[in-house]
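During the second year of the project, the team shifted from modelling isolated chains to modelling whole assemblies. The rationale, set out in the original proposal, was that interfaces cannot be judged from single-chain predictions alone. As a representative example for this report, we include one of the complexes processed in the last quarter. Its constituent sequences, exactly as entered into the pipeline, are reproduced here:
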Amino acid sequence: MAGNMTEDSNGRNHERAHASAKLPHVTRRGFTVMGLACGLLGLGGVSLARAANAIAVSGVRLGGNAQSTRLVLDLAAAPTHANFNLADPYRIVFDFSELDWQVASEQMPRPTGLIKSLRAGLFRPGTYRLVLDLGAPAEVSRTMVLPPQSGFGWRFVADLTPTSRESFMARVVTGNDGIVQPAKTVEPAVTDRQRRSAGPKPVVIIDPGHGGVDPGAIGVGGVYEKHITLAMAQQLKRRLEQTGRYQVTLTRDRDIFIPLRERVAIARRAKGDLFISLHADSHPNANTRGLSIYTLSEKSSDREAASLAEKENKADIIAGMDFSEESPEVTGILIDLAQRESMNLSAQFASLAVGELDRKVQTLDNTHRFAGFAVLKAPDIPSVLLEMGYLSNPTEVRLLQQAAYRDKMADSMTHAVDRYFDQTQSALRP
Ligand code: ZN
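Output from the structure prediction step:
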């Protein structure tokens, strides 16, 4: 840090790092941070609701080395902040009052010193989260909120120094780390009387993967999976509602983090009859493309399916979540009879969806696959996970950003939902 940024002990400070962009260890590229406006990504129809009092963040800088690493945020006002540790992998989590992140991904600094990577995003309404991934235990030796001075605006400064695993663990927060306000808990807005007169409409839950602090896969050109999944979810919701046959609930309707178990809980609270989780993958081989659809199985259909499930199940780790009080429903779920029935229905829906989608968009061989996705583990709701394509493929990433292409998928999915409920509801009729 020496010679990079300095503060004297009476709180007056002179921060020189960003006055000198030439410093080799304060660079500005190659990072994953979420918070890009969707407009930049060409995803029409996605609304990013932002709290009116969110504080703008215009810059992020890292400096220093493995003995001392400094993080600086440039802000429009002073935020509230708190931090805690999470272990295995080592992470330091900062929770701020709501921020309006205006730093584009290409303006993000490179990993520096103790910080391997960093992510930021809305964690829940009112809380904006910054997660630092560490290669080794480190501690926050000091934080400061500095008032505007010498041409700089408000700054948040955090200094990190190495520490032992033992003292890192002493600051690990266990238990509920303040989760879980779902974006919206949409209970079916139908009274019993309405139900009797109109007949109950099946409830379809659409789950746009990732969000907020968890971007999901990052595609060619920097597009984030979380934005594509939300855009598709909103189109599919509209399309399903147009039929007049369904009530549709989204697990999130804005760019916000929702834990995997909470997605399942939202579906159960809304008494979902069918759960559709939307994702898009990336692959080391840029030529790989095609849509696939997954249903739950303890045994994955192939190695690739297993590693995909592992990737998607990491969403909570990416967002800086603590698992110590994870409900057994999600971690060590028992496949009971109810779930076996759900799995059969899930497979039935998946094969209908494959039949519809196969005619309209490019699919992978063995389009219907099996793997242990955490988000598919509602024991009583038939659930599928749709991987819409590969963001690592230049053609597919372009298509997935087009509303017209997503409409084609939404159309096919709607036909599949129609056929699924035609089949299952007629089976229930006396
Ligand atoms: Zn995903």
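The chain has a mean pLDDT of 79. Residues 74 and 155 are 5 Å apart (CA to CA).
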